[in-house]
């Protein structure tokens, strides 16, 4: 079934199942993972870029989780593949709950954590909508949590489970194809 949001203010108005959801076949030796650090849920989107399009082949959605558990799951799914992680930059900060940062945990698990700066939330939303509307993001139908998130998330969201997996996709999309500010062209001065 399709997830329909009956309230106004849909965040991802650019998402269209008919345009953005199609089977995706993984054929790359490198997989990218957009990752949003949370305990409940910890979310990620696996994918790659080819011919200017971003293909999302799988999702990671773990309830009541941690970075150690996520790393183990990633390596179980992709034991012979290079996984490059595009994740929340706050994961590089120490927490009182661990002597290692989330980025260090991933690196010690032999995952390649890429340098990335979080874009402002509204820019991330606008960028994702732009890419969705242009058909530059293709999502495999088995990514049910991501599809539901893209269809249900509103600006006045009260559901704590929503917004995390689309954030993970937003990080990956920004890494591959960021929203760029238009260049100002100088105008001729008249005196």
Description:
- The protein is of the alpha/beta class and 191 residues long.
- Helices cover 30% and strands 19% of the residues.
- It is built from six helices and six strands.
- A six-stranded mixed beta sheet has the order 5-4-1-2-3-6.
- Strand 4 (82-87), helix 3 (102-108) and strand 5 form a beta-alpha-beta unit.
- Helix 4 packs across helix 6 (164-176).
- The protein starts with 16 loop residues before the first helix and ends in a 15-residue tail after the last helix.
- The relative contact order is 0.24.
- The model has no long low-confidence stretch (mean pLDDT 87).
Low-confidence runs: none
Note the total helix count: 6
What is the terminal separation in angstroms? 64 Å
Structural class: alpha/beta
Q: Please state how the strands of the largest beta sheet are arranged side by side.
A: 5-4-1-2-3-6
The rounded Rg comes to 18 Å
Quantity of strands, as a count: 6
Task: Report helical residue fraction.
Answer: 25-40%
Shape: globular
Largest pleated sheet: 6 strands, mixed
H-E string: HEEEHEHEHEHH
Q: Quick check: average pLDDT?
A: 87
Provide the β-strand percentage band. 15-25%
Question: Short description, anyone?
Answer:
The protein is an alpha/beta fold. The protein has helices spanning 17-20, 67-77, 102-108, 121-133, 144-152, 164-176, and strands spanning 30-36, 42-50, 53-62, 82-87, 112-113, 137-139.
